[in-house]
Amino acid sequence: MRKYLCAMFALFLSGCASVPKGLAPVTGFQLDRYLGTWHEIARLDHSFERGLTGVTAEYSLRADGGVRVLNKGFKQAKNEWKSVEGRAYFTGDKGTGSLKVSFFRPFYGGYNIIELDKDYNYALVAGPSRAYLWILARSPELEPAVLQKLVSRARELGFDADKLVFPGPAK
User: Fold this and answer.
1) Which helix (H) or strand (E) holds 134?
2) pLDDT digits (tens, 9 = 90+) for 102-144
3) Strand-pair partners of 100
4) What is the pLDDT of residues 87-103, one digit of tens each?
5) CA nearest 97: which of 70, 41, 59, 64?
6) What is the pTM for the complete model shown?
7) Buried b (16+ CB within 10 A) or exposed e, 110-128
8) Which helix (H) or strand (E) holds 13?
9) Alpha carbon of 30 to those of 38, 94, 125, 166: distances in Å?
10) Is the Cα torsion angle 105, 52, 73, 144 positive or negative in sign?
11) 51 torsion bin: left (phi>0), alpha (psi -120 to 50), beta (else)
């Protein structure tokens, strides 16, 4: 767990709470509809998630008006669940899907929702640079056509979609 936490620290120390150049977070965003559990369908790989399957992110309201973030994944090599809790806050207007998230205060990284299904069933999320990308869904699987649409969209936006990792369910 210590290695996982140290890697998360490095990500947010090196990153910033910004939007990658040329990208725009969604507008008309409604936090209450976004709260709850999201499953990681795909990601650009990083050491802090390497080897994790069954990855989920659970978002809930904090007493201070922010968002509690609980990330969890199964590390098959050690046969154990890993989790880390953080907090997120809007970087501006609450109707725009741009937040800053921290797992190690005072360091924050960008969390930018750049595509969002009108029914809040799936999302494309960018970090502070094009090195960080996640495809999230409310269920552990997405229809192949929807997944292909999101992968294509990521490619159009300048992400290296050929390097996406598809972690699948916990094994």
Assistant:
1) strand 133-137
2) 988 788 999 999 999 999 999 999 999 999 999 999 999 999 9
3) 89, 110
4) 999 999 999 999 999 98
5) 59
6) 0.89
7) bbbbbbbeeebebbbbbbb
8) helix 2-14
9) 15, 8, 15, 27
10) positive
11) left
Which residues does 93 contact at the CB level (< 8 Å), separation at least 6?
none
Tokens 């299904």 locate to 117
Q: Tokens representing 88?
A: 């997120």
What is the three-class DSSP state of 104? strand
The rounded distance, in Å, linking the Cα atoms of 157 and 150 is 10
Query: Can you tell me the distance from the alpha carbon of 47 to that of 169, in angstroms, rounded to the nearest whole number?
Result: 19
Annotated domain spans of the chain: 2-165
Amino acid 53 reads T
What's the 3-state SS for 24-78? Answer: CCCECCCHHHHCEEEEEEEEECCCCCCCEEEEEEEEEECCCCCEEEEEEEEEHHH
Place of tokens 């997120």: 88
CA–CA separation, 28 vs 152, rounded Å? 23
| Maximum separation of any 2 CA atoms in the chain, in Å | 42
* Domain at 2-165: CATH architecture: Beta Barrel (2.40)
Number of residues in the chain: 171
Q: Write the DSSP symbol of residue 142.
A: -
